[in-house]
Design goal:
The chain has ten helices and eleven strands. It has about 300 residues and is an alpha+beta fold. Strands 3, 4, 5, 6, 7 and 8 form a six-stranded antiparallel beta sheet that branches.
Length: about 300
């Protein structure tokens, strides 16, 4: 083989073509077809880095495995990419995937699960809630949202669906009880809940009309994905630097907190029941601040 051919193969490898040499005489080469492209692997690596429940050591192992899916030249390129790493404390639990497998096995068998749930207490340690009492419910689906896995579970005695963080669940077991199937469980869509809700907090599903400042439109797109303008007969009055958007949301205190963070640049216009709830939310927060100030002043005077 001429030196020019060697140079050509080297050039092709540098440009992303995965040409492998076989240890035979004469030299043989093969163009390898990879299952995933470099860009697709990069997206997966970014997801691993931004996942909050994984420990750093687990992330490192997963990234190494993903890197092996691309050619040597592309591995070097991937190692120079800047990956977003969320600035949060990593949870200590490493059995998230075991929890997911147990939940999926129960769902496949159409059974209810039994489990206990962990929350942080006053001492800042995670402990089992409700005096270590076990929950029983029907798992409806698992979703990855905002860096964590959540499972939606229908609780029979409460006749409601709640979302639980999978990394905070423990002692998960299959009860062999038949999964509950009713109008509530049939109508539930966990994917829409993840888009329209906020983390583990669900609420009443309502179509809300907003008056949004132009510089906040991108935040809406990031949160909800598809944007929909107001095309109703009762057009919302807007200024030149505003737009009226319509979005289906799950109304909760967390949703109101998200709106408040825009400092008036995002306003709820209708329906009235959501606007009234938001006003009550703001009034109660204001009262809490005022009451706390009064208590602190009294305590300061008594010293």
């Amino acid at each position: 083989m001429t030196l020019q051919v060697y140079a050509d193969i080297k050039s092709l490898n540098k440009n992303g073509f995965d040409i492998v040499k076989f240890s035979k005489r004469p030299d043989r080469y093969k163009l390898v077809n990879r299952i995933l492209s470099k860009d697709e692997v990069m997206v997966l690596i970014d997801l691993v880095h931004s996942t909050k429940f994984l420990t750093d050591s687990k992330k490192k192992i997963l990234v190494q495995k993903l890197n092996n899916l691309v050619s040597k030249s592309n591995r070097k390129k991937l190692s120079t990419n800047v990956h977003a790493v969320a600035a949060y404390d990593k949870t200590k639990m490493v059995d998230v995937f075991d929890n997911i497998n147990r939940i999926q096995d129960a769902m496949q068998g159409k059974h209810q699960i039994q489990y206990k749930y962990l929350k942080y207490d006053k001492s800042l340690t995670r402990s089992k809630v409700h005096n270590s009492r076990s929950y029983i419910g029907t798992p409806l689906g698992i979703v990855f949202d905002e860096g964590f896995y959540y499972v939606a579970i229908y609780i029979d005695n409460l006749e409601a669906i709640y979302k639980f963080r999978v990394d905070r669940m423990t002692e998960i077991g299959d009860t062999n009880l038949k999964a509950t199937k009713n109008e509530i469980t049939k109508a539930y869509d966990i994917k829409k809940s993840a888009i329209n809700g906020f983390g583990a907090y669900d609420g009443e599903k309502v179509e809300v009309t907003f008056r949004v400042s132009i510089d906040c439109i991108s935040a809406f797109a990031d949160r909800f994905g598809c944007l929909k303008t107001d095309d109703s007969r009762r057009k919302v009055k807007t200024k030149d630097d505003e737009v009226a958007l319509v979005q289906e949301v799950l109304v909760s205190c967390q949703f109101f907190g998200w709106i408040t963070g825009f400092e008036g640049k995002v306003q709820i216009v209708r329906p009235k029941k959501v606007l009234d709830k938001y006003k009550s939310f703001l009034e109660s927060r204001y009262k809490e601040v005022v009451v706390n100030e009064i208590v602190e002043k009294k305590q300061g005077m008594s010293k």
